[in-house]
Amino acid sequence: MRSKDLITQEKTELLQRLTGAMQSGDETAMATAFSDFAESVQRSVVEEARELAQVVDANVLAARGVRQLTSDEREFYQGIVKASRSGNPKQALVDIDKAMPQTIIDTVIDDIKANHPLLDAVDFVNTNGAIRMILNADDVDLATWDALNTAISKELAGKIELIDVSFAKLSAYIPVAKDMLDLGPAWLDNYVRLILAEALAAGLENGIVNGTGKNQPIGMTKDLDGSVTQGVYPDKTKVTLSSLDPVEYCGVIAPLANKPNGGYRAVPEVMLLVNPVDYIQKVLPATTVRAADGTYKNNIFPYPTRVIQTSALTSGNAVIGLVNKYFMGVGAGKSGTLEYSDEYQFLEDTRVYLTKLHGNGRPKDNNSFIYLDISGLKPANLKVEVTNTAEKPVNTKEVSAAS
Length: 403
Prior knowledge:
Subcellular location: Virion
InterPro entries: Phage_capsid, Phage_capsid-like_C
Oligomer: single chain
Number of domains: 2
Number of strands: 16
Shape: globular
Protein name: Phage major capsid protein
Main location: virion
Organism: Solibaculum intestinale
Structural class: alpha+beta
Radius of gyration: 25 Å
Number of helices: 12
Order of helices and strands: HHHHHHHEEHEEHHEHEHEEEEEEEEEE
């Protein structure tokens, strides 16, 4: 049994390779990276299953990610096992005609949110096969003290939108090795959820931040009011943020308090998305101060701010906005059946299945997120006042927080 630290390190490296391949658009590199990742996950699950072979305590198994399955879930996984053992897996899957239960998607979404802060922050829901979702685009109060006349009806109708959540598809491949078939439905569920969660998370984060709107979500960096060319939304104009001085930082944040259709809204907290390297090299120096006792205090912002690191942003770029103002809906839909795939025949001793998840996402309004240029973000300066009440006047000097 390999050590947990070794497994975690290997998983991190493989996910970085997978994310890089997805962003590059290199399909060969993507297939290879995903194959290596799936093989690593399968090996870990098989090792853990054998280690816990004699364990029957449901709580112990649950702590390792092994759930108690519903009858529908158990039937679904038994169908995968039967199809994988079949000489004709395509026909076996046709005979099953069993869609992936929505409860599996619910659990995958929970798993994703638990391990990816960005996906936990947005309004991320299982659409449960819905074709369209109603979106209150402007936080409009749907109650009125007066009779609901025609003018008010038109005003409300203009601020409520329908999102077609079947517009884009996320295709997730599930390689199933023969060793996995002997573990039973509960461990197969553990493996499938791990594969789906990580494969979907990488695609979802990039779509939520950078999605063009063409067969994919509309990203936080896109201008909803811009000129759309062949379904592609343009980038927002970047706002330069050179320091986290209270006046400059709050000046950047202030427009978020304006509703897009007039009026104001409270902004109790903002979310700052940055590249992991920029967080270390730019944001930390700009938000670190030295206390009187000589210790350093990190993430000191002049406004309540939640920092989230994401590899979906390139160096020098950032996004600041309202944490709950991005809607992302994902679901298996009524056609969420598994298909057998011939595309990855280089995988030895493994059969590969494909499930297509429908989804769509977009900012709830065009004023919820601001695209930032932080390439010139400066370290914090700490003003120190020394007062001598005896005879000398007050001396004021500025010292760097890093000193």
